[in-house]
Amino acid sequence: MSAATIKAGLFDRVALIGVGLIGSSLARVLRRDSPQTQIVACARRAETLAAVRRLDLADETTDDPAAAVAGADLVVLATPLSAYAEIGRQIAPALREGAILTDVGSVKGAVIRDLAPLLPPRIHFVPGHPVAGTEHSGPEAGFADLFLDRWCILTPPRGTAPEAVAKITALWEGAGMRVVTMEAEHHDRVMAVTSHLPHLIAYTIVGTATELGQDLQSEVVLYSAGGFRDFTRIAASDPVMWRDIFLENREAVLELLQRFSEDLTALQRAIRRGDGETLHTWFTRTRAIRRSIIEAKQA
Amino acid sequence: MSAATIKAGLFDRVALIGVGLIGSSLARVLRRDSPQTQIVACARRAETLAAVRRLDLADETTDDPAAAVAGADLVVLATPLSAYAEIGRQIAPALREGAILTDVGSVKGAVIRDLAPLLPPRIHFVPGHPVAGTEHSGPEAGFADLFLDRWCILTPPRGTAPEAVAKITALWEGAGMRVVTMEAEHHDRVMAVTSHLPHLIAYTIVGTATELGQDLQSEVVLYSAGGFRDFTRIAASDPVMWRDIFLENREAVLELLQRFSEDLTALQRAIRRGDGETLHTWFTRTRAIRRSIIEAKQA
Q: What range does the domain containing B259 cover?
């Protein structure tokens, strides 16, 4: 996998709308593998665009999404989800006929519902989700190896041109990813378990700890290695991105949260009653899933 | 810190009651730094003792705690907490006068309450908690560097001989740890936040995921890199050890769990109502505590 490269000339002109961790990492891969590909970077904030120029991640920079997409054969939407609808309205009239539009958002059902109706015909919309990231954000945080050996999930709506799906598959495979295709709603249920609920829980517990008063809090920092530290890393993720994820994947997250709360209540009850057997049975079962993850080489 | 060593001859004869991750790691440090120290390893299971002999972690092995402590100037209790009381009764008559008894348990208040009354006078009891570990258990999982640059918390009851505390401090500092002393009850409150609640939450969420049905479960394994994986690592920790921790630190854990549940309910409500501002404010606040941890060099 580490020998993967994006085929030079797969796209002639790529518009990156949003140049955070994911967008800037993709720019780095394109720079590395396909230097002849023109990259136009679009961001709202002047500092972001200045960083893009300093890092030489694009040939052109603009804060106007419509200008960015003009002439592009690939448009990659890599902003927080809440910006999609407005950007969709702005770029729709400017998209080149036959262009492929993809995105990197962590929720797919709501995105397709909001974005698809805005797009003109003869545009190929291939929603995608490269499942990769760190707790850092912004163009400086990106790196070309971010995608290496990670999964990318595409959720093309029924009727999407297979050639467009194939080109987006080639793009992410070139970046080192393993690409799969599934239904958008299924994607959202899987991600609610593997990513969205864990983030919500981590945000909650770290928030709970910050309210314990100053004395205890400084000790929590010192002794964080006992488990808490892993949660703080997750809970340092980008607040806007995650606010949007929870709002857009609301139903799947709330349904899962309900199950989680029931399970937590059961364990709480076992602790209160001194029911060691229930705890032991539960804790033994969870070890098995760790083993599956190690066997699947995801650990 | 990495130049730390246990002073040769600090103890002549060490009895390790329990030779899991912590006990076997301490044995490795003693072997490395003080080869003239005699080590007696005591475990209930024959396979554990066979592993200890195979790994050359002790000079003598036995399944009889009373035999193990005979003549030892240091006794280290490193079993699950639920074994303490019975072992205390067994070793009390066999302890050498002036011997130091310490332990490595993750809960201190209940331990002192149960164990101290069983001990004869002229025994120095210095409860301790080396805050170090991995998700692996057993004598094969230990390694001498486990303690390096980690904290060790001692909770000597009022009136403990300062020389005994000094020797246990020297032991763990020699293993590379930073040693601090605090009240047992305070220790238990701090650990409830930094370690016990995070483990309970991780166990819960991984358990919730295992009940989602076979189809979804295999995908959860594949896409675990999005956050879930960190929880599975924590939830793979030793089930007996953790059952005992929750039962022994019941009050602090339940009190904290109550706060956590209230906070989770508040975030759940914000998601249901589409209240992005509450989510954003919460998620921004949690980033700050991550920065404190990085500044405190605990990340």
A: 187-295
Q: Decide if pLDDT at A297 tops 80.
A: no
Whole-complex ipTM:
0.90
Cβ within 8 Å, pair B210-A235: no
Nearest CA in chain B to A268: B254
CATH code, A238: 1.10.3660.10
User: Among all residues of chain B, which has the CA nearest to that of A150?
Assistant: B225
Between strands A60-62 and B13-17, the pairing is unpaired
Question: A64 vs chain B: nearest CA distance in angstroms?
Answer: 26
Residue where one domain finishes, among candidates B159, B183, B207 = B183
Over residues A213-271, the pLDDT tens digits come to 777 888 888 888 778 888 998 999 999 999 999 999 999 999 999 999 999 999 999 99
CA distance A146 to chain B (A): 12
Question: Could you tell me the pTM of the whole model?
Answer: 0.89
Same domain, A151 and A245: no
Tokens describing residue A220? 């929590």
Closest Cβ opposite residue A222 in set B151, B195, B230:
B151
Measured distance CA(A152)–CA(B88) in Å, rounded: 56
* Binary contact (A211, B264; C-beta < 8 A): no
Mean residue pLDDT across chain B? 94
Listed residues A163, A182, A201: the one ending a domain:
A182
